Amino acid sequence: MFRRIAITTTALALVAGATLTTQSTPAEAAKGWQVGVGIAGGLAAGAIIGSALAQPRYHAPPRAYYPGPVYRPAPAPVYYRPAPWSPAWYNYCSHKYRSFNPNTGYFLAYSGQYKFCR
C-alpha cells in the first residue's frame, strides 16, 4: 500500500512540475530548446518534490499503559484423609499400597522400611 502511494505521489509531482515550468509565451516557444530545458527543469523539480512527499514518516508508537500483574496467594491445599482405623481408611490404604497390612496399619515402602499409612 505504501509503495503505491509513493509512486502515485511521485508521478503527480512530476506532472505538476513539468506543467508549471513549461508555460511560456509564443515567442519563447518558437525557440525549441527552451521548451526542452523547461520540461527537463520541471521534471527535475517534480522529482525532488515528489521524493520529498513520498518519504516515509516515522512516528513514535503511542505509549500504552498496561497494569502490572496481580499476584494472589494460592489457596491453601486441603487434604481429606480418612481417620485411621475407619472403614474409609482401610479402603484408601489397601488401594494405595499393595503391601498394606490391615492388621497393623503399616505398608512396606520402597526404602525397605515399614511405614504407617496416614
From TrEMBL:
The keyword Lipid metabolism does not apply. GO terms for molecular function: carbohydrate binding. Its main location: membrane. It is found in: Membrane. Belongs to the BA14k family. Has immunoglobulin-binding and hemagglutination properties, and can bind to mannose. Essential for virulence. May be involved in LPS biosynthesis or polysaccharide transport. This is Lectin-like protein BA14k. It comes from Roseibium marinum.
